[in-house]
Amino acid sequence: MILQALIGYYDRRARSASSDIPPFGFSREKIRYALVLSPDGHLVQVKDLRANIEGRIAPKEMVVPQATKRAVNIEPNFCWDNTGYVLGKDNKDKDDRAKEAFQSFRELHQLIGRSLNDAGYHALLEFLGSWEPDKTTEVIDCLGSEGARWEDVAGQNVVFQIDGEMMYIHEKEEVRNAWVQYWWEKKSGIAAECLVTHEYGDVERLHPAIKGVYGGHTAGSDLISFNLAAFESYGKEQSFNAPLSRRAAFSYTTALNDLLRFGSRNRVVIADTSVVFWTERDSPVEGFLGMIFDPADDSADDAQLRLFLESIRDGKMPEQYQSDGDVRFYVLGLSPNAKRLAVRFWHVTTVEKLFKCVGQHFYDFRIISQYENSPECPGLWRLLVQTAVQEDSKNIVPHLATGVMHSILTGGPYPVNLLSAVLGRIRANGDINYFRAGLIKAYLVRRARLFNQPTLEVGMALDRQSVNVAYRLGRLFAVLERAQQDAVPGANATIKDRYYSAASVTPRTVFPQLLRLTQHHIGKSDYGAVREREIAEIMDAVQEFPAHLPLEEQGLFAVGYYHQRQSFYTKTQETKEVAS
Fold it and tell me: pTM score > 0.85 for this model?
């Protein structure tokens, strides 16, 4: 199903006139320099193709004849490659191997294009025929008028261009046609039925590499490969064990590389998982999931996106997307595993169901905000860092991240370790902020709804009618802390810093002592009577302090504390508004 969906995506993109997805036989590669040749085949310039993108010097992404798959073998690319193949010299101090690679590069071009009637290609053949690898360093340094010295060029990918022409040699129509014919005619010699297209014919031996997966191998990784006898069956080696035609192998790998490319709006990285998503047909929804989950961009603050999120949160299908409700929506999570890729999850849904699930997530998250600018629909990254040490995205537990994302996409329960992770961070640094309280609230209300556990119900803001003991104890702890702050304003440490962890886990060991201490604070405070009434109101539903609170009740304790604390600020604001 994954391969069929990817091939469908490629076919859809390839049919579009405005698409830049590589056609059959081509791939998008990073090119850094162009070797400019004179019409008689002499190297006259080394042109720097790199550009400054967001403060860093980046190579140019260019559609070139498809890259060959190499390990220790020598296998040249057509009309482009690194300097070891193109010039017979690189920065690896293996001159004999580089000369062998150059000879292979020259023979390939003579084989494919000897009969071509193109002046530019003939200049390339002249260049390859007369070039001396031993003089490479000297010649490049001599031509480096744009600052491209040999140490810059060595080992980098280069293409060819004729002096005075705008087009690169590999972009010429006759050269492209010659390459495509050669590419189609390459045979593995093994015929079988393609598992995707069901056409009988030649099977692709090695599938093109997948690049762009976070943490993956720089040369690319494989989604389908068999390199050990233990993985083989019926004596079928390499990709013959999962037969795909050349067209199918090219289509799914090109589609995946296009989705994973730098700057793609169809890709986000959550912890160690690269997530790509696409629709069955053209739809403006295709990029919205990226803006919702994008860990590098707080796009949820954008006005248009905020309106969209608020709409789906309230259970409404935005008018502009109603015609796309039945369009299939695909989500694929990949993570690296040595030279291979592991499929972390694969989810197929429709746009309408996706909107409902994402909207339900934000609805469950809703909680009274801590500040006026607190985002009502925060991105997934802002939530997940609340579970990480030092709130660093590098410390997000991978399985937790994928579990939360899967819950959001399917509407299922959040992973159990989400609650323990958030409570663990609260106990570690005592920070019960808007995001953490919202996450705990979302976990509890979703669990209450899905598993019919009404005792876990909790609202957006302070619920004075709730008689849940854990919730009330959280409120009580907030009042006791406030009483201390009233009596000792500006104290360096409050009872929260010393007692929150024990109070939320083993209330019986802490609260009697805190209540005795609070009597001292009430006696010193101007608002002592107010705090005394609040304590009495809360304690009205608490018959005894529990010896221990289970994990979910610890979550209720945290939400009760957050609600009660926010009510203090709300009251203060209301008082100021009345006074003004």
Answer: no
